Amino acid sequence: MGCGCNKNKKVGQPVVTPITSKGFEVPKQEIEPVKENNTSSPSLLKKALNFGEAIVDHVADGMVKVDKNELTARLNICSKCTHNHGGTCNRCGCILTTKATWRSSDCPLGYWPNAKTE
Question: Whole-structure pTM over 0.85, yes or no?
Fold first, then answer.
């Protein structure tokens, strides 16, 4: 589920290789590099709704967090993304250090999926 970002995914976006319990595999598509001027983000209401949905998913998942290796892999991907603006995702508005920690969360662009399906 995640924070609701996947509801707006465009059809035909590339599928990435998931992070598995056996280790992290690099996404099959190229990650867009960080751009300093990428400051547009969802409205405050949309951020609150996305975060609220992410909290519900996290609680429903038993508040399970990912392991240290998976968290590091997720944050490394986010650090290279154009939508990372000062640690906040400009696609969903979530704080990346929180969102990447939760097993039930996923990247709105599909660079890393939720890990609870394994």
Answer: no
